[in-house]
Structures are given as C-alpha cells and as structure tokens.
C-alpha cells in the first residue's frame, strides 16, 4: 500500500511541476518543459497527456525547428477552469472573475462606509457577485476552482481554507471573525489570506517579482504591510502572520499605533501619519489621497514644511526598508499600495539612496527597488492565484 501511495505522490508532484511551469511561463514545447523541470521525455509526455485529458492544457500550434520535425506548442487552456478573486480593502469589496490564464473577465465593486463591514454582508456580497459575474459572461458552464479572498488583516490558520481561518482586521472592525460554512454556501472552495500576501503572490506570478527567488513586496497606504518571497514561495511563518512589517518598531517612544504599541513603521510612513506630521491635524480624514496630492504639489512648489515632511518620510521609509534588506537579502523590493505608488513614481531614487544608507553595504547594493507593475488591482488577482495554486498542488476540488 505504501508503495502505491508514493507512486501517486510522484505523479502529483510531476503534474504540479509541469502545470506550474505552463502557468508561469506561457506556451512552450515538451522539450522545453523537460529542460526546465528536469523530468524525462517519457514522464513529460505522460503528464502532459493527463493535463490534455483534464482539459486544462491544449495544443497551440507548431514551432519550426532547425532541420527536425516541427515542435508542438502546449499552452494553458484559459477556459479549462475559472476562478474568482476578491479584495476587501478599507472601504471597498472588489470581486473579479478570471480564466485559468488569469485574464480578468469581469469585475464588481461594493463600497462600504466608515471602515466597518459585517461578515454577513461579505457573505451576501460574495454570493451576489459570483452569480452576477457568471451571468454577465455566460460562465455557468465552466468549472470553478474556487474563490480567493484577500483581507486587510492577519489570517490565522494552517491550511488557508476558509473553514479553518480566523481573521483579525482592526481596520474594518474584525476581531477573531471566521467564514465557516462559506464553501458550502458558494458551492466551491474558498481560500483566505492577508491582502499583502495575495498581492505578493500576484507580483511573483505575473508582476515585478516574476521569476525571482527572493523578493519583497511592500504595500503602503493608510496601513503598511509586506509580503516576502523566499526560494520562490510566499513566506508565512508558523501561523501565517509573517510579513507584519508595518508593526515592526523603529522607535521606542514614537506615536501610538492602532495595534496598541508605539513607534511602529506604520505610524511614521502610513499616509495619515505623514499628513499629520505635515499639518499637525487630521484635516484629510477619509480623503488621504487628496491630502497626499496636496503634499506632493506643495513640495514641488517649494513649500518648506512639505519638503521637510517628505524628506522625513523618505528617511524613515528607507530605514524600515533597510531592516528588510538586512533580514532577507532580497534581489528586489517592489513598492506598491496607493501611497507607495505615489512614492515610487516621484521619489524612487531618493528612497533607494536612503535605503542604501541604512542597509549593510553588500545586500543594500544588491537590492533593486521598483514600482509595482500590477498596481492596486493585484489583491484580487493574487487572491485568485490562491485557488489556482491549490489546484496545481492537489488537483480538482471535490
Ligand atoms: Zn503597530
């Protein structure tokens, strides 16, 4: 019996290797798959035949090769299965439908007020959105791999399955909430993860960190978070809370933080913290993006207080990034989130100098700083990859 089980494990591992290669690298030939995965031609042929039979891979024409027979090209069949990705942010739930190649087919948005959201409302939204999105594109006949949900908080749980997850998201009023039974309500699996982690997985699969073994995605908005890729996979720690960089401390007696502590990175580089330091008020409460526009415009116009506030931001953010550089030795740090994107657009060179000034010399010089390619849409996209990742590793949902 043991031998049988291990044969099955080998087949599953080989399938995962080849399917992941096709998903992340696009159309390719059997020979190239063999070269990239180290699997024998016989194994590649056998696994590919299985994937063709499953309907998730298809022939995609032929490539002429020097002298030999033309090579058959294989590609993911986009309609082999579909997935849904959902992003719960501080004021909006966004639900998006994707095909297996992660092309966005349709999307719906559900705004909410005052940074408070009942979990029962989320269940209603997800039911409504699923039905509405599939109606919109006539998609009810396609196989659904599941729904991934990115949330603005810590997700405890070892499996990532919604039935197993406990969520703490102060920013929308969630204290130890769960979504038990949601998988049964929707009729397909639901996976939940922190939004910074889903964004990081999206950047790693399709964005600025594509193909890198060691990278960090830093998200800066009101809140501040990070996702860490080590050896090509998302780093989660023992109970999935790894990457809470926003609550690492850079001061003993700094401003108090919503986490209950003081001096957290977020209390220095979060958007409202920066605005409060500039004007000493919370004048943009709820309209922080307008406030940051005003700050950057004032800085360009030579306003001394604005110049000083931005200089301080760059210095403190550089210090906080240098700590990540020293701890993880990344090849690249990707700056995202709505405020992070403004910083990366206008101030990337300054930020790189500040980071190098505080980091150890060798890892500091090695780490490239870059603006996110995917932008803020990456949370839902990354959440969708949770369902595809599970499909790659373990096969079709029951
Ligand atoms: Zn904190």
Primary descriptors:
alpha/beta; 22% strand; 398 residues; 16 strands; five-stranded mixed β-sheet; Nucleotidyltransferase, domain 5; globular; binds zinc ion; Arc Repressor Mutant, subunit A
Q: What can be said about this structure in brief?
A:
With 398 residues, the protein is of the alpha/beta class. The protein has 13 helices and 16 strands. The strands form four sheets. It has a five-stranded mixed sheet, sandwiched between helices. A five-stranded mixed sheet has the order 14-13-12-15-16, sandwiched between helices. Strands 1-3-2 form a three-stranded antiparallel sheet.
Please work out how many helical segments DSSP would assign: 13
Total count of domains: 3
Question: Which term fits the overall shape?
Answer: globular
Ions and ligands: zinc ion
Per CATH, the class of the largest domain reads Alpha Beta
Percent of sequence in beta strands: 15-25%
Structural class: alpha/beta
CATH 4th-level superfamily of the largest domain:
ATPase, nucleotide binding domain
Unreliable sequence segments: none
Write the layout of secondary structure elements.
Layout: H1 2-25, E1 28-29, H2 30-37, H3 41-54, E2 57-63, E3 71-76, E4 82-88, E5 92-99, E6 104-111, H4 119-136, E7 144-151, E8 154-156, E9 166-169, E10 174-178, H5 182-186, E11 190-194, H6 195-206, E12 215-220, E13 224-230, E14 233-234, H7 266-269, H8 271-279, H9 288-300, H10 304-328, E15 332-336, H11 338-358, H12 361-366, E16 368-371, H13 378-394
Helix pairs in contact: 1-3, 1-13, 2-3, 6-13, 8-9, 8-10, 9-10, 10-11
